[in-house]
Amino acid sequence: MIDTTTAIVDFAQKWRHWGGGSDADIFVEFGLTPAQYFRRLQQILEKKWFMHSLAITPAVSAQLQLICQVRLASHSARNTMAHANILPRTR
Fold first, then answer.
1. Contact 27, 78 (CB under 8 A)
2. Residue 52 in domain
3. Which keywords does this Swiss-Prot/TrEMBL entry list (predicted)?
4. What is the pLDDT of residue 70?
5. CA dist 80 to 13, 20, 59, 77, Å?
6. How far apart are CA 51 and CA 63, in angstroms?
7. Which of 16, 34, 38 is nearest to 25 (CA)?
8. How many domains, in total, are found in the chain?
9. Domain assignment present for 31
């Protein structure tokens, strides 16, 4: 679990300047959907002691939190739009 957790944080740091990595890269690297990955990263970032043990500064942690929020909001918006297109229209 620690190795996977560390790998998630390492990946996030590596890709933070580009919005967190592509959906395809996330899936290939971790076998997770982007939503699963960013929710997991958010959970990790909440563990301040763990971030400190990896020498992640509060500024970088805040940047990663923002990326999670943006990517999860984007995912949610896409799902809402897709769901709206499937439902029959009412008159």
1. no
2. yes
3. Plasmid
4. 96
5. 29, 22, 32, 5
6. 13
7. 34
8. 1
9. yes
